[in-house]
Amino acid sequence: MIELTLAQVADVVGGDVAVERAAGAVVGGVTIDSRTVRDGDLFVALTGTRTDGHRFVGSALQAGAAGALVRADRLDDIPGDAAAVVTDDPGDALLALGAWVRDTVDPQVIAVTGSNGKTTTKDMISAATRERRVVANQGSFNNELGVPLTCCRLEHGTELLVSEIGMRGAGQIADLAALLRPSVGVVTSVAPVHLELLGSLEAIAQAKGELVETLDADALAVLVADDPHVAAMADRTRARVVTVGRSHDADWRATDVELDRDARARFVLDGPHGRHDVALPVAGEHNVGNALAALAAAVGVGVDLGAAVAGLAQATISRWRLQLQDIDGLRVLNDAYNANPTSVAAALRTLCALPTSGRRWAVLGTMAEIGQSSAAEHRATGAVVADLGVDALVTVGETAAAIRDGADAADPSNRARRWAVDDAAA
């Protein structure tokens, strides 16, 4: 992060330094978790539904924080001599601070959104652009807290910021894109996620498309056009559009796709920059589209395609995203970070692409935030299990039991190898 005094932080966020003698304290990082405080950090005290950061201001300062960002109406809850910047809303102040750092450093920005594949695509972009000085969001820091925290990690000399943008409702992507002001916007997919909040696939597509609507005319929109909802976003942006995918009319097209014994794809990239052999470091044929998007984004910010392909092959993907592990003679495919009907179907197809002389088991839990269609979507996932010929199924949780029911309905002959257990038993 750019080093700032508490007085400068107060000026940026429109707050006041609580104790004048602390005004010159130097901040070199930002955190919202008192357990991760490092010397010189600014601890942002957020009030949530489960806990209140103001309770931990004292411990954060004792751990080495240079100061804290606190609410004006909570001064009585922090040590009287605390080095603090007082503001009406620390969350809004964090957004303001992140925007200021982003504008001050002024790097190129690649923003990624989509129902599935955001984190994997972000990881791929980071690897494909490794010849640049890159800052990327950690894990899935992609909301109104994660995006400004990532911006605060920028330093003088940072050339490229790669950031996911997530959402829980309409308008949130537009707000975060306005903070980031991306030069490249990537949309990976539209899937039945957040139906509980948005109600329909069309509403999800409308919200995801907010990213391309914010792009300037000299920016680039990269769209995974195998998804028709994403392809349709080409009409919603003034930016230059590049489509990627396996369809014949994609600008960047994957051909000759093959999977190795770890279900990792190899393919030929055919596009405006010629033909290149590409090898992916992560399992799942569906990741071909994410890889194409990552390469197009990298070239969009000036990286040579050959260098981007070489970097992509070395990408480290965030944990629990189709993470393949060999444990005591078993191969375990761990995709436990999150789940929705589309991602689970992709994971099941990946499972069945792995060669084995034994049986294939699927252990599946509840898919959250899919609203009134939850029961139907869980049963449909069970039908996928049956159609793919998965040998055995264990579902975990009351809601997930509908997956077993769907599998039994699609293929009654394998009922004896399907079990539903509750959360406590798991």
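^ that was protein a. below is b, sequence first then the tokens
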Amino acid sequence: MKRTFLLLAFSYVLTLTGCAQQEKTAVQPDYDQTKKMVVDILKTDEGKKAIQEVMGDEKVKQQLVIDQQIVKKTIEETLTSDKGKAFWKKAFEDPKFAQNFAKSMQEEHEKLLKALMKDPEYQAMIVDIMQNPEMKKLIQTEMKNKDFRAHLQKVITETFSSPLFKAKIEDILMKAAEEMQGGKKKSDEEGSSEEQTA
């Protein structure tokens, strides 16, 4: 009897333990299902509204600003460190990377240069540089350079063969011819009116 009781108690404990483990595994949700559920919630109007409310909270805004300052400081420290300098030096050795980087910065550089060209202080510096005797000598030397002359000749030839340039020159010549004819007619009319009065 004791044996039967122990056997029943033991089987009862095993059954409870087995069922308890199955319940635990059934309760634990799958990661992908949880992820999908969260994404679905965030896509709803209520989810969007909740995010907007959270982003509107002053404490969250302050935390984001602090995080931005930390990010900025980290980037500055990374760029100015020896490892950062070595990384950028190696990265710019790759012509494709250098080209893409230059293209991405081109618009900002153009804005900066245009702003500098309007700056009187910058203009004065450029004038000083151009009036420097060494700079004048360098420019003259470059202009006498065979490669520069060949490049200049190529640019001039391309410009003259351009249909737009040809159209502009033709327009200018036509206007000049019309002005000359108009002036000649006036002088002829003035001359004939003087002859009639005499």
